[in-house]
Amino acid sequence: MAKVGDTESLTWRVTPDLLAVVDEGGIFLDVNPAWMQTLGRRPDELKSRPFLEFLHPDDVAATEDAYLKLQHGVPILKFENRYRHKDGSYRWLDWNAVPEGDLILCSARDITEAKKTALDLAYSSQEAQFRDQFIAVLGHDMRNPMAAIATSLRIALEEEQTERARKFLEMARESAARMSELIDNVTDFARARLGGNIGVEPQDGIALEPVVKSVVQEHRLTAPDALIAELYDCPTPVRCDPDRVRQIVSNLVANAVHHGESGHPIGVRASEENGRFVLSVVNSGPPIPKRTQEVLFQPFVRAEFRSSQNGLGLGLYIAKQIAEAHDGTLTFTSSEEETEFRFEMPL
């Protein structure tokens, strides 16, 4: 720190920090050129004037307390207040000050942008938390009405209906099932984002071949034009949550059906490799774009190479969360020839 007789030093003249010498009455005796750069005030506009004159009104009391400590010989470190710029705006300054005889030697650094960044991050965090909580409540509150709709449609389909009425009821049931899936995805997403886990209930001795087969059969019914080739070699029972594994399989097969090239078969293989259950789902078609690959497992990401997009873009994010909850992995490779998703977990 430069003293009064040292105000022509190179450091005093070129440092971006605001340097000042203040007397015991709080009057600026000297300031360096950095004050002009930061506050738009020339040194001669500050000299012989009290520093309190430039403070934000809300910071006066705290600054007076800090200055009183300096007058009693106590250094002040990392003290923040706001100084008025010549244009009327305020800049946040971070101060260090030490008493030197009857003088106070001060240095300050402009932290306005850092303060703004921290405030923006705090607001963003609050907004994200509010959004996630809102999604969680919305998903929960929609679940019961949708369950009632699905039950009503099931009962109606069990009764005698005209062919036309049955057709519309089937369409409504499919839509309700799709909506229930979306609600489940939203609820899972909110649970994961709010710091909870995805919610798995492992059971011992689960045979996964029937689980995978049933999912494939469901997709054959909903997409009769899809060609799906199956191969199974997974006889060892696994400790897992079968409903959650079904969710992974359904998501991967649905993606393959939706993005696969028409007329080319989709390959579904469930096997065992090196003490792990492995599910591979392969489809032909255009590769996943590079920029999408980088964020594919993030929420609300959907492929860009199809004009028709269904869902919220949560499926792969949730599938990966489920895989990791089983101490497993969900990975993919994508080339000009084919795209493969691969789910693995311990046997």
From TrEMBL:
Q: Which SUPFAM superfamilies match?
A: ATPase domain of HSP90 chaperone/DNA topoisomerase II/histidine kinase, Homodimeric domain of signal transducing histidine kinase, PYP-like sensor domain (PAS domain)
Give GO MF terms, alphabetically.
phosphorelay sensor kinase activity
List, alphabetically, the SMART domains matched.
Answer: HATPase_c, HisKA, PAC, PAS
- Reaction(s) catalysed (UniProt annotation): ATP + protein L-histidine = ADP + protein N-phospho-L-histidine
For the PAS domain, which residue ranges apply?
15-67
Q: Which InterPro entries match?
A: HATPase_C_sf, HATPase_dom, His_kinase_dom, HisK_dim/P_dom, HisK_dim/P_sf, PAC, PAS, PAS-like_dom_sf
Q: Which residues form the Histidine kinase domain?
A: 137-347
**Gene3D superfamilies per the UniProt record, alphabetical:** 1.10.287.130, Histidine kinase-like ATPase, C-terminal domain, PAS domain
* TM region positions: none
Q: Which domain of life is it from?
A: Bacteria
Which keywords accompany this UniProt record? Kinase, Phosphoprotein, Transferase, Two-component regulatory system
UniProt-listed PROSITE patterns: HIS_KIN, PAS
CDD domains referenced in this protein's UniProt entry, alphabetically: HisKA, PAS
Recorded E.C. number(s)? 2.7.13.3
Kindly give the PANTHER family that the UniProt entry links to this protein.
HISTIDINE KINASE 1, TWO-COMPONENT HISTIDINE KINASE
What is the protein named?
histidine kinase
Instruction: Please name the taxonomic classification of the source.
Output: Bacteria, Pseudomonadati, Pseudomonadota, Alphaproteobacteria, Rhodobacterales
